[in-house]
Amino acid sequence: MRVRKLSVIFALTLFVAGCSSQNRSSIEIEMYNPAGDALGTAKLSEENDSVAIKLSLTGLSPGLHGIHVHEYPVCEGPDFKSAGNHLNPDNKEHGAMNPKGTHLGDMPNVEADSSGKVNAELAVQGATLMDGKMSLLKDEGTSLVIHEGVDDGLTQPAGDAGDRIACGVIQLEEAAEKNPPSDPSEDGGEEEKE
Q: What's this protein's family per the entry (predicted)?
């Protein structure tokens, strides 16, 4: 009888745990400009040893733009500095061309076409949507930030990519409900110069 009770308790524990956890295999986030206008979406999905990101955006200036995962799930305008620095759990230097790099949040530049559209697929190598040190959902999440200019892949601390022109919060729905997005037109905090 005791074994049966323990089995029932164990089964109920697993059921409750399964109900309270969200599917982390994919997440879709909205991207906004500093004025709070929606630019499109980024779809994140768990892959082997990376998180794939599929961008579908409009309203950017034509050309190449730096894109990074930043450390905080906050996108407050007008400068999105509230997103913090690049996600860097291993305390490395910035840049794909840097032998001491890269930050976990570093990615290749994306290109907006002549009409300002971006349809691109990227990967955050070494990242995960699951729990752990390399999670994009650590604590209450992170953010995806697009910059005005090109990330040169080397300049410290952030690639000399210029102002932050688009931002989207990467977090689970339950965290978003606890911390609704701020008005993107509000002033943000201070951080390192891009």
A: Belongs to the Cu-Zn superoxide dismutase family.
The answer for residues whose C-beta is within 8 angstroms of residue 10's C-beta and 6 or more apart is none
Structure tokens of 90?
């291993």
d(CA 90, CA 86): 11
pLDDT of residue 65: 97
Q: What CA–CA distances, in Å, run from 41 to 44, 57, 72, 127?
A: 10, 6, 18, 19
194 in helix, strand or coil? coil
**Domain 23-178 carries which CATH code?**
2.60.40.200
Question: Residue 152 — very low, low, confident or very high, per pLDDT cuts 50/70/90?
Answer: confident
Measured distance CA(3)–CA(172) in Å, rounded = 37
Q: Using the structure block, give the residue that is written with the tokens 């995962």.
A: 69
Whether residue 19 contacts residue 11, with contact meaning beta carbons closer than 8 Å, is answered with: no
Burial of residue 188 (number of CB atoms within 10 Å: 0-12, 13-18, 19+): buried
Report pLDDT digits (tens) over 179-193.
Answer: 444 544 444 444 444
Tokens representing 189 are 């905090």
State the DSSP H helix or E strand holding residue 63, giving kind and residue range, or none if neither: strand 63-65
